[in-house]
Amino acid sequence: MGRPSETTLAETVGKFITARPLREIRRLLGRQAYCRKVRRGKILLRSNPWEKWEIALLGKMPDVEVARKTGRSYDTVQVKRRGLGIPNSAGFLRDWTKAEDRLLGTASDEFIARRLRRSENSVKLRRTRLGIPAARNPKYRRWTSREDRLLGRYSDTTVARWLKRTLASVMHRRHKLRIPTKFRLGERRSWTPEELALLGTMSDEQLAKRLERTRRAVKGQRNAKGLPVFTRLRRQWNASDDKFLGTLPDKEIARKLNVTVSAVTHRRRRLGISRRRILAAKRHK
Predict the structure, then answer these.
(1) Phi, psi values for residue 43, rounded to 5°
(2) Fewer CB within a 10 Å sphere, N or C end of the chain?
(3) DSSP label at residue 192
(4) What is the per-residue burial (b if ≥16 Cβ within 10 Å, else e) of 221-240?
């Protein structure tokens, strides 16, 4: 076929323009598709009504594409689609490829979603529809028969502490095996004589970490027993200790006397011994 002549092309374009409404032609040419009316000194804008072919595009393609094809703004297309109750499924759905399907179940849904740049819910829904089981958690530890025998005999909190598992994991396992329990959730753990003997011998935070209790529980038990807060005994400085001050750096004196550097610095300043004495001793050597 040869190239059409300019006369034939002009006739075809003329027939197309004649068959189309004026507002559609204006939109196709990239001009504003509204009418202006002057009333009482104000300019009122009246939008063009939507054609059937424009409404048919809503929801079948993204709103941006509909706005480009119809010559309307993105906000106008979005408001119209929402007003008609048409979901924007075309704007969010992305077809799954075979390569992406092969990745499902090989790792956690969160990792696959981050790799494919999809949402975690989308990955989980796709995997469920294809009947692919979730990947096994590498941190999961199987339950043994010895651990199962502890369920129900002791509180879930105690079992979780002994087995170094989460409380939710212990409760889920006990419910799964249908093992009843006589303990209530949040039941307090009784204090043993050995634990009571440690109160006040160290800070509440250190003791709580050692006994695997909360700091608030340790503090409350200590106050109930009338025990004071643990404080380190201050070193009593004597004349032989004071002789070292100024002769060596504070760090070396602290190491020799088994005290902190701040304690040495505070004692030296309190006695009015400056660091110049240290520098002078070094020069004299």
Answers:
(1) -95, 115
(2) N
(3) P
(4) bbeeeeeeeeeeeeeebeee
For 80-133, how does the pLDDT look when each residue is reduced to its tens digit (9 = 90+)?
A: 888 888 877 665 567 788 888 999 988 888 888 888 888 788 888 889 888 898
Angle 33-34-35 from CA coordinates, rounded to 5°: 140
Tokens of 249: 């750096």
Burial classification of residue 140, based on how many CB atoms lie within 10 Å of its CB (0-12 exposed, 13-18 middle, 19 or more buried): exposed
To the nearest 5 percent, what fractions of the chain are helix, strand and coil? 50, 5, 40
Contact call for residues 140 and 159 (beta carbons, < 8 A): no
Instruction: Please give the Cα distance from 234 to 237 (Å, whole number).
Output: 9
Task: Give pLDDT tens digits for 5-50.
Answer: 667 767 776 776 676 666 666 666 655 444 444 444 433 344 578 8
Q: Which amino acid is it at 267? A: R
In whole angstroms, what separates CA 240 from the centre of its chain?
58
- For the chain, counts of helices (H) and of strands (E): 18, 2
From CA 251, how far away is CA 258, in angstroms rounded?
A: 10
Burial class (CB in 10 A: 0-12, 13-18, 19+), 26: middle
Task: Tell me whether strands 42-47 and 34-39 are parallel, antiparallel or unpaired.
Answer: antiparallel
CA distance 172 to 178: 10
